[in-house]
Each structure stands twice: as C-alpha cells, then as structure tokens.
Amino acid sequence: DELGAEQEERRRRTLLNKEFKAFSEKIAEASEGSIDVDIPFRDIGFQGVPFRTNVLLQPTTECLVHLTDQPFLVIPISDIEIAHLERVQFGLKNFDLVFIFKDYSRPPVHINTIPMNQLENVKDWLDSVDVTFYEGTQNLNWTQIMKTINQDPADFYAQGGWSFLKLHSENEDSDASSDSVSEYQQSEDEYEESSSDESSYDEEASNDSDPGSETEDSEDTAPDWDELEEKARRADERKHGIKRGNASDEEHSRNKKLRR
C-alpha cells in the first residue's frame, strides 16, 4: 500500500544518508586534512530552474549545489565575480539569478524562476559569502555583454566595469519614480477639477434650491393687510361718490321739468 511504500522510502533514504556520511568522513580521514567535507545548508536553500526542471539549490560553505537529480550543478563561490538579480519588481511572483564568473570565457549560469518570497534569503546568502550582486527589473543579454567585455577587458574596466549594472538599476528606479510622480500629479489635477466641478454644482444647487431670498424680496415688496384695507375703503368711497353724483343730477333734471 501507499503508507508502506512511503515508510520504506524514508528508511532507505535514512540508510543512504548514513552511508554517505560515513564514506565522506573516511575520505577526510584518509586525506589527513587535505580534503574538507562540505555539508549543504538545507534551511537556506531555495527553489529554482538551472536547467529545465525546478529543483532545490542548496548553499554549502564553498559552493552552491544541486546533487539530487541529473543534471547536477556545482558552482564554486570562489569562481563567482558578481551575481545579478533580474526581474525584481513589484507584482511578479518570480525572479532570476545570473552568476558571472571571473573567467570571462565561461558563459554565465542562469537560475530562473526563483520564488519572490525567497529574494531576501538569496540576498542574505550572497552577502554572507561576500559575493557582490546587483539587481534590475529586466533580463539582460549576457551573451552580447560578455562578447563586448571579452573584446577589450581593459577598456571595460576603464569605463567603470560592472558599475553600469548599478547605473542601469538606478535609471530603472528613476523611470519608475517619475512615472509615479506623473501619475500622482495627474491624480491631483483630476481631484482639483472634480473639486471645482463640485463647488460649481453646489453653488448652482444653492441658487436653485434657495427660494428664501425670493420669498423675502416678495414679502418686502408686497403690501401688508392694512394697506389692502385702505385701498378697498378708498375704492368704495369713489364708487359711492359716483352714485351720489348721478342721483343728484337726475333730481335736478326732474325739478327743471316741473318748473316748465
């Protein structure tokens, strides 16, 4: 069954580890100190793709190794001149690591697709073994770079050597910061525009929704109750006065007829 097979695999692995440890100790004793046995530090290992498959890469005192499956990988730290961390940018899940050797005739070794959450562990390990490293947001064309360096190494160092990697990284950072500043300024402009629109809208709304001023003006210009009564009284007086005048005229004409 599966449980029995898993237990058998663990037992076999433990036995192989003991045999390999005993073998390495015998080699160290037989060499009388001329050979040191190095043990990988599994706790600071990291996943990566040095060839075609994702494997566990483990640092040792002198090397970075992968010895579990073929093809094997052994990179002596003393052979490394610099390391370059590539595709280090916010939002990506993985980054790449490139080792450039002191022997410029050797092609650089690429370890791709390292999880981004192991970035600080890789940096700490490179610091602990005194390997200078740079980082950037893009992959570089190392075939062309090494070809240019090998054409005139003296001129390469005269122009600053590997400092161009630092300048390249700073330029990428400045471009990113300038983009952030422009986006921030644009957002400020949009905010001011929206604020002005809101203020004009509030002003129009206050003018449209404030009938109090018109009511107050109409109340100030409209006559009060006493004035209305006074006007009505005067109209009645004028009306009655006209009727009295007409009545007196009719009486006067009748008197004239009687005298005749």
UniProtKB/TrEMBL annotation:
The keyword DNA damage applies. The keyword Ion transport does not apply. It is found in: Nucleus; Chromosome. Residues 186-229 have a biased composition (Acidic residues). One of its GO terms (biological process) is DNA replication. It holds the Pfam family Rttp106-like_middle. Coiled coil: none annotated. GO terms for molecular function: nucleosome binding. Residues 230-239 have a biased composition (Basic and acidic residues). Residues 46-136 form the Histone chaperone RTT106/FACT complex subunit SPT16-like middle domain. Keywords: Chromosome, Coiled coil, DNA damage, DNA repair, DNA replication, Nucleus, Transcription, Transcription regulation. Residues 170-260 are annotated as: Disordered. Component of the FACT complex. Belongs to the peptidase M24 family. SPT16 subfamily. This is FACT complex subunit.
